Amino acid sequence: MNPNKVEFYDAVQRAQNGDRESMFQLINAFQPIIQQMRHQVRPQDRDDLSQTIVEGLIIKIMNYKLEHVPTYSEFCDQLLFKAE
């Protein structure tokens, strides 16, 4: 099994159980994507966009069903293109 899948699975499980450090680690894993998206909007909107993305990420992590563990790319697609 791919160690990254195990690490993400474990981090999501811990975050869902209230481990703030795991939540911060997951959010940090998505920082490159967040930074890319920030540069697609006006400078005055970048902080708001970052906050909205992080909020959406937290909601997705907390509500994610761990029965199906996606790859990093699948999770990013779900986060970015199927936001609720």
State the end-to-end CA separation: 30 Å
CATH topology: Rna Polymerase Sigma Factor, Chain: A
> What is the level-2 CATH architecture name?
Orthogonal Bundle
Number of helices: 5
Helix content: over 70%
**Count of discrete structural domains:** 1
Oligomeric category: single chain
The low-confidence runs, each spanning 5 or more residues with pLDDT under 50, are none
Shape: globular
Question: How does this structure look, described?
Answer:
The protein is an all-alpha fold and 84 residues long. It has one domain: Rna Polymerase Sigma Factor, Chain: A (Orthogonal Bundle). The protein is 71% helix and 0% strand. The radius of gyration is 13 Å and the shape is globular. The N and C termini lie far apart (30 Å).
Short description:
It comes from Paenibacillus silvae. The protein is built from 5 helices and no strands.
Spell out the blueprint of helices and strands.
Elements: H1 3-16, H2 20-29, H3 31-38, H4 46-63, H5 72-81
Keywords summarizing the entry:
5 helices, 84 residues, single chain, mainly alpha, Rna Polymerase Sigma Factor, Chain: A
